Amino acid sequence: MQLAVEGEEKMSIVPKETIEVIAQSIGITNLSPEAALMLAPDVEYRVREIMQEAIKCMRHSKRTTLTASDVDGALNLRNLEPIYGFGSGGPIRFRKAIGHRDLFYTDDREVDFKDVIEAPLPKAPLDTEIVCHWLAIEGVQPAIPENAPLEVIRAPAENQIYQQKDGPLIDIRLPVKHVLSKELQLYFQKIAELTLSKSNPSLFKEALVSLASDSGLHPLVPYFTNFIADEVSRGLNDFLLLFNLMHVVRSLLQNPHIHIEPYLHQLMPSVVTCLVSRKLGNRFADNHWDLRDFTANLVALICKRFGNTYITLQSRLTKTLVNALLDPKKALTQHYGAIQGLAALGHNVVRLLVLSNLEPYLSLLEPELDAEKQKNQMKSYEAWRVYGAILRAAGLCIHDRLKIFPTLPSPSPSFPSKGKGKVISTEPNKRKLGVDSSENRSPHKRLIATDGSDGGPSPMQVDRPTGDANPPQNSVRPSSSEQASDGNAPESRNAKEKDDSKGRAITRKAILDQIWKDDLDSGRLLVKLHQLYGDRILPFIPSTEMSLFL
Amino acid sequence: MDPEQVDEFVMGYLKKKGFNSAAKQLQEALHHNNGGTFNSTDYHNDPELTKLIRSFSQSENDPTRYRDGYSKLRSWAYNSLDLYKHELLRVMYPVFIHCYMDLVGKGHTREARAFFNSFRKDHEMIHLRDLQKLEGVLVPSHLEEMEFARSLRQSKVNIKICQYSYDLLLQYLHRTESTLMLGIINEHINFQVYSGQPNSSSDDIDAVTIVGSFQETADHINQKEIQWGLLEDSLEDRLEKTGSLLSDSEKGQGESKDGDVDDSKKRSNEIGKQGSSLKKLKKDKAGNATAKVARQETSIVSPAPRVKPELALPVMSTDVEESILEDLRNRVQLSSVAMPSVSFYTFVNTHNGLNCASISHDGSLVAGGFSDSSIKVWNMAKIGQAGSGALQGESDTNDQNVGPNGRRNYTLLLGHSGPVYSATFSPPGDFVLSSSADTTIRLWSTQLNANLVCYKGHNYPVWDVQFSPFGHYFASCSHDRTARIWSMDRVQPLRIMAGHLSDVDVSVSLTIVRCVQWHPNCNYIATGSSDKTVRLWDVQTGECVRIFIGHRSMVLSLAMSPDGRYMASGDEDGTIMMWDLSTARCITPLMGHNSCVWSLSYSGEGSLLASGSADCTVKLWDVTSSTKLTKAEEKNGNTNRLRSLRTFPTKSTPVHALRFSRRNLLFAAGALSKPAS
In this predicted structure, what is the pLDDT of residue B367? Predict the structure, then answer.
């Protein structure tokens, strides 16, 4: 090999250390550094030469990818021994050497001989075949599967054409390609991970905060709804997961930048599942009651926010819940969830839907409550939970009703007499309530707020009190008061009216009639509840009212 | 400047160069001068000369001078007027590579590398492949060893430049005293100065030709006369005969015309009148009646002259001749408005092993050469009639068969001991020739399914082999830098086309021959080479008669137009060039493919060119319009581009082979490759 007689340091891709290592590997130990230095550029030249030849071999094999066999062919052309031998088919896997940024080695695993011998024979490779097709017929490419699809060539971005079969008049809109940025994808992955992992509650809390406040998350909403729906259906046994998911739902609802309405229909089934499912979590220690309470509030929140836009939302929801409650075959846990859900929707719902069914339900619950008849402690505990829930719902309802009574109202003297008369004849009362509840479910009715929904401008309700001919006493009332009243100022008649109307535009007459009727109903209710619950209802009744009744 | 100082410089220079006696003499002369008799030399008073002397005295070996000189020249060229800029920039590339090689030659490897890397970006766009070759040159011995570098060192670069640009350049070089650059330019660039405005087209192909002295040789070679016309008494002639007579006795008639020059002229006039019938293939058999009607249309293309064969051509059997005539009679006339049908043969499950594919003239047989040294031949007429409906019109003439095999649909031909690089069918389809990396060419019979002859002669892998248009003879080309002509009945080659047989200069640059193609009249073969040139060789004398320069990367495929007037060549970058054989000039480059052009084929009457490429497309080019237009526009000096008519993309199948059947059905073949995941 010729070498230039130069003492100067060479600059080559191949460092002299490599030459030294190679020399050592073939048994030359006394290679001087100068020799290595001089060899380096020549080695580079030879390697380049061989690669150039290998590329020529590749071209003659009509390929565009260089293979080991090409390099072997190039070595053959130079009368050198091929170094690669038989190719192993698969690509060579390189591994990064630890501690070096750009040093790689081939992953040469030890293979157990036994494994190789006992391994099943691989499938025989398919034999070479020729398939014939028309690439073009008189210059036109036929649209057959063998040919490259034309759409791909013309518009690579849209690889499918969306077809609507509704009719020719509808203009076909191509689906907009949804591009999710890398950052959002990462965000979604991270949130999903946190939700599923349950290991890092503090981080999860921060994630929830971020979900509830960050703007720009809107593109992720469909992914989140899908994720929640999937995970709820899959993870009904995983209590913590369900709880996490519900937290995610709440955070999404809270986020002011997210427009979640279009996805509610996808979200609601999962949420309702968490409310009234027979079994949530598989361990005894799982406090599924908490989850149900939490979800009940969530449901109420949803109804409150989107009742306006989704008219049928609440009616459908209450229907589902009432069905769950009134079905004696359903488990007590489901009853509990239904009661909590209804209670969260407000006392009007409770009054219309729960209290009307209270008597038969309690009779159903009675045997479960009795410690002697129900030997199963678990069942008895559940029954008591249900009983407590229903009592609380009823109690809160009656409390709310009574609170709004005037302290010394002029019509108050008539209450006891009227009320008692009605209580005696329970039959018509129930029928009337039945009418009310059916109205409640009617799709035309607008439910603006959860409480006070009764005050809706239902013509039937307005007409009926006028038929009763109970003239209102206070004729001058500001009808459209915009102030939000929290309802604990019962001393003023103004406030009472506000409470009832909740700022809705109803005619003054209707409002007054409504108050009158409500008062009557309240009185009846209280008596009934007292009959059913005995003294347990008393703590819910404000002291001022108590004096009135007792 | 102080005269004493000058003298000192001269002294130092002489000493450094080892001219001791001269130094002594000078010293004596100086002493003598100091005596004060007379001053014989006037160099003391000539400032130009003084400067020159001083520049010589500067450290001769200083490698930074190259870098400085080049970068100054470069910035000057880039800042020159737009009008002259592109002409001046042409100078940069040769200066660049010679600077680099000078640096390497003087042993400044580190500086050479740095110099190369800092300026290589400028030239990468056009000269990428050359740069990749040169990059490996690091020590002076490499310069000697590497052919490419050696040829660069020995030859001059021709650069066309207008008078004004030339003056600008000289002015600059003198003003800045950059003698180094001036030296390089003088040594390696040959300016062809022309008067007038600079050429506007910056990508003029003739503007820069790297191998300058070689160019002269090429010019000289290209002066030689070639007979590009078709053979007299060709089948096409006979077809005309039979077409007009509508008789079955064409053979006897045809043979009686031998050597009748006047008659052949007449016939050639008639041949132009061959119809441009736009019949569909299905109607091929409608017979001569339709063909005759259609034949009344005339085309304007001037008829090709007729030449006599230089080789003793094989005698064709009557029935083969009949079938060819039948095919020619039923040929679909193609043009830019009448496109051919394309039947595509896709090889599946090749496991990346298909090296070449070949289709017989009637499209019924397909051969594949594989890297596991096997050849597989499929008889498409026999494989499912449904799939090969295309063949029904074509296969009626095909009387050979591939032995039916219970297991496979193909005939396996084993014999080679290395990857098979090429296969070719004889015109009637009864023989297959294959060339392999084991340096042999083998002849196989498709009737016997056996190896008949093994031709040994090449010393290196044989890249390509092609049957002559009439069979019997075949040409091969190899890595050993020769192309050889063989006949089937001899195991030794008849001719060896090697550089040393023609010219010394040529041998320098003649590198590995890539592909070979026969001229339709069998008197010439063309070879494409990795030195980016295409050559035309006379078969009889073995001389190189044309050199076609213009490709920018290695030539991979060649095709000759049926009238023998034009040639198309495709290269590694996807450029196709169409050449006029008589003038050896490129008519027009065809741009469109973006990867290697593996295959080219002219349609039967030469109006369309089909190209198949590694970018998984088959493209059709309209070559008639362009050739006509070029003639008209040649005066305007306007280069027009051939029209790309159609592009047929395949489903990730690089197109390895193309063939127009005699009836102008286009067959294409390629191996389905999994798209890179």
Answer: 93
| pLDDT band for position B199 (cuts 50, 70, 90) | low
Beta carbon pairs, A and B, within 8 Å: 180
Mapped onto helix, strand or coil, the DSSP state of residue B564 is: coil
Round to whole Å and give the CA distance between A167 and A185.
Answer: 37
Determine whether the interchain pair B341/A136 forms a contact, defined as Cβ–Cβ distance below 8 Å: yes
Alpha carbons within 13 A on the beta-carbon side of B644: 14
Q: How confident is the model at residue B455 (pLDDT cuts 50, 70, 90)?
A: very high
Pairwise CA distance, residues B345 & B53, whole Å: 72
Taking an 8 Å cut-off on Cβ atoms, the answer to whether A130 and B595 are in contact is: no
Judge contact between B436 and B419, C-beta under 8 A. yes
Contacts of A44 in chain B (CB under 8 A): 136, 138
Are B348 and A4 an interchain contact pair (Cβ–Cβ within 8 Å)?
no
| CA-based nearest residue in chain A for residue B651 | A148
Q: Using a CB–CB cutoff of 8 Å, tell me whether A127 touches chain B.
A: yes
Tell me the pLDDT tens digit for each residue of B367-402: 999 988 899 999 887 765 434 433 433 333 333 333
Asked which of A41-50, A352-361, A504-513, B400-409 is least confident by mean pLDDT, the reply is B400-409
Give the whole-angstrom CA distance, residue B409 versus residue B226.
Answer: 46
**Separation CA A327–CA B236 (nearest Å):** 96
pTM of this structure: 0.55
CA atoms of A323 and A340, how far apart (whole Å): 14
Q: Is the pLDDT of residue B244 over 60?
A: no
For residue B92, the tally of other CB atoms under 10 A from its CB is 17
Asked if the Cβ–Cβ distance from B348 to A129 is below 8 Å, we say yes
Which residue has tokens 């159903």?
A: A364
Tokens standing for A144? Answer: 């057959």
Of A116-125, A194-203, A488-497, B345-354, minimum mean pLDDT range: A488-497
- Find the CB nearest B142 among A8, A45, A47: A45
pLDDT at B102 over 90: no
- Contact residues on chain A for B603, CB-CB shorter than 8 A: none
Query: Which residues are paired to B402 by β-bridges?
Result: none
Average pLDDT over residues B518-541: 82
Q: Which of A16, A37, A45, A135 to mutate to test the interface with B (most CBs of B within 10 A)?
A: A135
Angle between helical axes of A459-468 and A508-533 (0-180°, round to 10): 80
- The CA distance from A53 to B511, in Å, is 12
Give mean pLDDT, residues A74-101: 75
Give me A81's structure tokens.
């021994």
Distance of CA B173 to the CA centre of its chain: 37
- Tokens linked to B62: 């200083």
Number of H helices, E strands in chain A: 22, 3
List, for residues A423-445, the tens digit of each pLDDT value.
333 344 444 443 344 444 434 43
Residues 6+ apart with CB under 8 A from B212: B155, B156, B157, B158, B189, B190
More confident site: B414 or A384: B414
Helices marked H in A277-376? 288-306, 312-326, 332-344, 347-349, 358-369
Sequence-distant (6+) residues with CB within 8 A of B371 are A61, A69, B352, B353, B354, B355, B419, B420
